[in-house]
Specification:
By secondary structure, the chain is α+β, with helices and mostly antiparallel strands. The protein has a domain of 54 residues: RNA-binding S4 domain (Structural Genomics Hypothetical 15.5 Kd Protein In mrcA-pckA Intergenic Region, Chain A), CATH 3.10.290.10. 22% of the residues lie in helices and 27% in strands. A hairpin with a 7-residue loop joins strand 12 and strand 13.
Length: 253
């Protein structure tokens, strides 16, 4: 006589029939293959919402936080973009509804938000990195990271040679001294136009440094960022980084 078996209710939480299998989630994120993901799960290297998961077939939803080897895993493959940011758009971590966010410029190809590396105000133009690779983004945003940046700056008044010397010797802001590698007039420009090369210098900090010399910025354009340039990248456009460029960024200390 056949027996009637009562189905067990699905586990509470992310392991409900909704969502996708954890191994597929890891594979989609570009971490590894599904077979490798099963091995990592069995080894206890994967957690969901703070709890280690070793169950095969465990399902996750888009709202779950998945970590592999204590690093957050994005639900989609890693994205690495380089944008030539136009004036009027903003890259900020303030949150809330931001008018003319840089996200609007990539939305046609990337429906999910791709976080930017560092902030750029509306008046600042030029190179901006965007990636959902949280580990790389945090490393590049760290002021201790060493990589070159070059800005072309137009001031509202003439810059004196003493100002250029002061920038390279060091400008004190509160209890810290900031130096740039070089500062010079732009060839063929006026004395209001200067080029500044520094190591991992944000636009906001550069403005503060210039203000210490009573120099007010009219425009600021980042033309080099971590070895990347604006070549073949018109204002307002963006492109994906090459594998070689991604490898170089990961090598930055």
């Amino acid at each position: 006589m056949p027996q009637n078996f009562k189905k067990s209710p699905p586990k509470v939480g992310a392991s409900s029939p909704e969502g996708i299998r954890l191994n597929k989630f890891l594979s989609n994120a570009g971490i590894c293959s599904r077979r490798e993901a099963d091995q990592y799960i069995a080894m206890g290297l994967v957690s969901v919402n703070g709890k280690v998961v070793t169950e095969m077939g465990f399902r996750v939803k888009s709202t779950d936080q998945v970590r592999y080897d204590d690093q957050k895993v994005n639900s989609s493959p890693p994205v690495y973009l380089l944008m030539n940011k136009p004036k009027g758009f903003v890259a900020t971590t303030q949150g809330g509804n931001i008018k003319k966010s840089v996200q609007e410029l990539i939305r046609s190809s990337h429906s999910e938000k791709v976080p930017h590396v560092g902030d750029m105000g509306r008046t600042v133009t030029g190179l901006l990195l965007m990636t959902n690779d949280e580990k790389l983004r945090q490393k590049l945003a760290d002021p201790k990271s060493r990589f070159p940046t070059i800005y072309q700056v137009i001031l509202e008044q003439n810059v004196q040679t003493e100002d250029l010397d002061a920038l390279t010797k060091g400008i004190r802001i509160r209890d810290k001294v900031y130096k740039v590698k070089s500062a010079a007039y732009i060839l063929g420009g006026t004395k209001k136009e200067i080029g500044i090369e520094a190591s991992n210098l944000s636009p906001g900090l550069l403005k503060k440094i210039l203000e210490q010399r009573s120099l007010k910025t009219q425009s600021m354009d980042r033309v080099l960022l971590a070895g990347l340039t604006k070549k073949d990248l018109p204002r307002g456009r963006w492109r994906s980084l090459t594998d070689k460029e991604i490898q170089f960024l990961n090598m930055i200390s």
